[in-house]
Amino acid sequence: MRVEFDDVTVALGGRDVVQQASLTVDSGTVVGLVGPNGSGKSSLLRTLYRALKPRQGTVRLDGQDVQRLSGRQAARAVAVMLQDPVTDFDLSVQETVLLGRAPHHASFGRDTPDDLRIVDEAMRRAEITDLADRMVATLSGGQRQRVMLARALAQESPVLVLDEPSNHLDISHQHELMSTVRSLGRTVIAALHDLNLATQYCDRVVVLAAGRIVAAGPPARVFSPELIRTTFGVDVRVLGDADDPVFAFRRLDGGEGQDVPPSTRTESSVRT
Amino acid sequence: MSLGEAAQIVIGHLVPGMPWMSDGSLTPLQDQAVWQFRLPRTLLAALAGAGLALAGALMQVTVRNPLAEPYILGVSSGASVGAVLVIVFGSAALGGLSLNVAAFAGALAACVAVGALARKDGALSPMRMILAGVALGTLLSAVTSYLTISTDAQNVVSVLFFLLGSVSAASMPSLIGPAVALVVAGVIAALLARSLNALLTGDESAVSLGVNASRLRGLLLVVASLLTGTVVSVAGGIGFVGLVIPHIARIAVGADHRRMLPVTVLGGAVFLMIADLLARTVAAPTEIPLGILTAFVGAPFFLWLMRRNGAERAGFGR
To answer: Where is this region: Disordered (chain A) (predicted)?
Structure first.
């Protein structure tokens, strides 16, 4: 399913947090949204799963305005892996993943054998099968994130939205997650902070800064040292090949062109 | 009177031609005690318990807060003002309004006011609902307190009886309102069970699952308030049932509404029937107000349950 953001402007608290963003995500591709905090990544994604209504512009799924779909139709087309599922009323892992089947049914009635099979498969893919009976609140941040992945997978939608999906995951599960969503053949849009992860798993990346799309294209071409410096305010050293780069970031000290002794530099990884 | 005799009387009224109704083995006094007093009040206790427990469960998911109960939006405070006005000034001064109708009107007015105050940009925010309900409830309680303290001493007991809740005035016709409200609310809740589960996980999460969180919250507010208002107008402000029974149901079967709602309704009915039995027997012939009994029996039982292992299922694991 093709996703189109057409001239989308989003207002929050009287401020335009996304301005005239236009972007097309082709069916079956994996696109990474990157940008500093507050650049509008999440707000743009929210217009796709209808948690926000654009002030101006249209979001389309295969040419159809998402605002004109019913809630259930939209939820059958787009699943979201949200950031934090914890509430005061706790559900078990399996009950949480079963919620992913909600858009496929009327609001009452029992879970069908099909539902249970799909949920089992989703839990297996997210590697949480042995957590099925645990309460979500007793899990670690990374485990909860995998529960939310399983819930989104169980929704069986052609489009998958990931909002900072890997911020609690250990390195191995970060790669597991990205290769899992890649292997599904669905249209995936992910807001990511880790540019190396985006480079390895995204067909295209889109860079946002201050609510505007400033660059888009294949990661190896978009992530130039200049762009990273101006957008994120960090220095970058590019390791590896030009078409398979690995980035090492350093704090931008004393402005461009100035040679700073290594002892005054701070590893960006320590700061984040 | 034995349980068997009571059963005979009830069956005799429901099924025509039972021999013991005409052979003189039961006195008219016994017949009247069971059919006109004990049966209606037991049924009202069951209906009120089930209704308040269901309303509490719905209110807890509506505002997504474990401290929520049927009265959190000022419904009982509104009902109290209506009832106390009738008790203090007399029905005639209020255009012939009966206590039940005045209480129901007060409950409805309070919940409409809270809904209007909590609305912003067409959406009901849980936090604003709670705060508006608490503030308005406090205001209305002050009105009730003032009216109570400035009235004749003989009226004070009536007011207290209403505030603490009682099913002693039950008659068969008084059961109709709560029964209809319970059935309607129960059917709506059952139809919405899966959406309620989605709402538990947050508004944004609910929307991503195809549930219009704002609209659902508005509907739940109306259903829970009408149910509570109907019960309160007949049985007064019986406390604790609506807060605690839903939690007990979650401890027993988990938070999935498809399982916890039936347990909540049944649990509320059984709990209040037992409380009413104790209310009229432990200090007989004096009757203890139901609200005192529910708190006295319910609080220790709930605290024991909460501290027991296994309460994680209700979210008490943290």
So the answer is: 252-272
